[in-house]
Write a structure and sequence with these properties.
Blueprint (H helix, E strand, L loop, with lengths): L1 H25 L1 H4 L10 H21 L2 H27 L8 H27 L3
Amino acid sequence: MKVIFWVITSILLAVLMLVSGIQHLWNPDFYLPIVPAFLPFPLAVVYLSGMVELLLGIVTLFLNQKYTKYGLFGIFILMVIFLPLHFADALKDQPVIGSPTVAYVRLAFQFVLIWLSWKSYKFTSLARI
């Protein structure tokens, strides 16, 4: 049962990365206000993050267990990198993601994604599937 849970979790994380990556490429204007002002070329940052998400989703979902492990670790790192952006957005008077309530829910969800990606990585690293 434990194996099935973490396999399904890994698949869901990969699908989330694929959908998010497509959204970054399809609708970059939505993500532009989230890019910190100190980063140059914000549109390029949005496109690059979308491509990284797509790559991580592909690696996690479609390649063998060895690469799934790397994909899950990459998702973990990416979620940690995005955490300060979600904190900053939640603290704005008018968050990019919507209302302050939605921004705080999204922030809490970010912690869940960090935990799930880490636990999935650890499970995949130890598993002999």
